Amino acid sequence: MQDRVVRGFRGSGVPRFWFGRRGLGVTLVVVLAVSSVRASTGQTAAAPGAQTTRDKVYSKEQAARGGKLYVATCRSCHDPGHLAEGKKPGPELTGDKFLTKWSGHKLGELHTNILTTMPNDGSAFLDDDQTADILAYLLQANGFPDGASALKSNTTGKDVLIVK
Length: 164
Ligand code: HEC
Fold this sequence. Notes:
The structure is a single chain. By secondary structure, the protein is mainly α. The protein folds into two domains: 2-44; 46-164, Cytochrome Bc1 Complex, Chain D, domain 2 (Orthogonal Bundle), CATH 1.10.760.10. Helix content is 51%, strand content 0%. The chain is built from seven helices and no strands. Helix 3 (60-73) packs across helix 7 and helix 6 (107-117) crosses helix 7 (128-141). The longest helix is centred in the first third of the chain and has 24 residues, at 21-44. The relative contact order is 0.18. Heme C binds at residues 73-74, 76-78, 87-88, 90-91, 93, 98, 101, 113-114, 117-121, 123, 126, 134.
């Protein structure tokens, strides 16, 4: 696609300076910007019938498991009421600010984010299922309803759209 756009410019009588070093850089930035807008629109547009975080995507038992893990491995940095001394606090994981930031993204992205970066002091290493349990807890803590089945990290959970 990039190829075609660049050729399009060339063929459309765009002045020569476009293809100087700087000009090409600008062209690339434009091309990249256009494709990332496309990518993010694709992401937010839920396919018909796609699940969102309102669709009872985790179970109460799972959230309870996740809650224990949260207390043991996350709370000391993420809960203003329980901050541990000497640890760099992180943002709150409940509430409007958090949901505004993540809405429009897939639960799978949040899962990967937690799995690969948290806790960021190396105090624990979570596996896929533990991370899914913590996600269930975070959904509960953010007021989303629970349902009959647990969130599976790599199948049902991945494409669930986070909404506010
Ligand atoms: C030692 C402190 C610490 C611990 C423990 C910790 N975090 Fe974090 N977390 C941070 C900080 C600081 C940030 C801000 C981003 C950064 O600097 O990496 C963050 C960012 C995040 C974010 C992104 C927040 C946003 O607004 O997008 C999520 C999600 C998250 N942490 C989840 C967790 C979970 C789940 C755990 C427990 C498994 C955990 N963190 C444990 C410090 C911590």
